[in-house]
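Appendix B. One record, verbatim.
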Amino acid sequence: MTAPAFIPFEAGERLDWLGLTRAFEAGHRLPRAEIADNFLYRGKDTLLNRAAWIDGLGLAVKSATIFPGNPERGRGIVNGGVTLYDDATGLLEAVVDFHLVTKWKTAGDSLLGALKLARPESREILIVGAGTVGHSLVEAYGAGFPGARFSVWNRTPDKAEAMASELGIDFAPDLEAAVAGADIISCATMSTTPVIRGDWLRAGQHLDLIGAYRPDMREADDTALQRARIFVDSFDTTLGHIGELKIPLESGAIGRGDVIADYYDSGAFRRTGVEEITLFKNGGGAHLDLMTSRYIHDNWNAA
């Protein structure tokens, strides 16, 4: 029996952002994923297990540990691992680096949403948030929108200036002005209160919301959702779980019918006019971890 592979972070050097979006589209043509999440807690420490099974693609379990005290130990807050299993036999095929899967899944998810919803001629891309995800978004969007010009805003300006200098992009000192000048706004923050105001948006823009993952987190206000046509990567992992949509749905600010489609409804998941504002909520469910892990594994084997 062949021993399971260990696929390190460096395997990302062989990957392709557009190739991943094609893998996502292929995965969504298969039967809808079965997914399950569970949490364990010890004080401020958390273990999150996310599992997915797609008939024809296999199984994956992504375990994430969130230990807020780790910086004092010289370690990152979020760590973990991903195990990938064969669909036919259930045998362990690979252990994939957690950070590799997370990087490509998160930014690739948003890229696919933008390729479907943003205007193809979009050239001004604003990244809101200067963290690890923000860096990955410049890579991903750069592959999907060649020739685009990037700018970055962050609540702590020196972090945005450092990212802009590192990547050779523009520093945006004023968020409202930067939003007004952008074709695509990609928001990856840890905010629990909206940082994007709907009154700032203009016709033809695409708003990509990544950061909120808990029921108490939001990055855009009610007006932004009310002015936009809303799409999600998965109804199952966003509507009842993430504050970005859960809060305005419960308050009545938007209705369930305002969330038009997820990736499983490819016919409805599209822009219908140059003037409309599109909004995509990146929920990043376990099924996308599975699709990403399978893409990484297949690429690793081919190489």
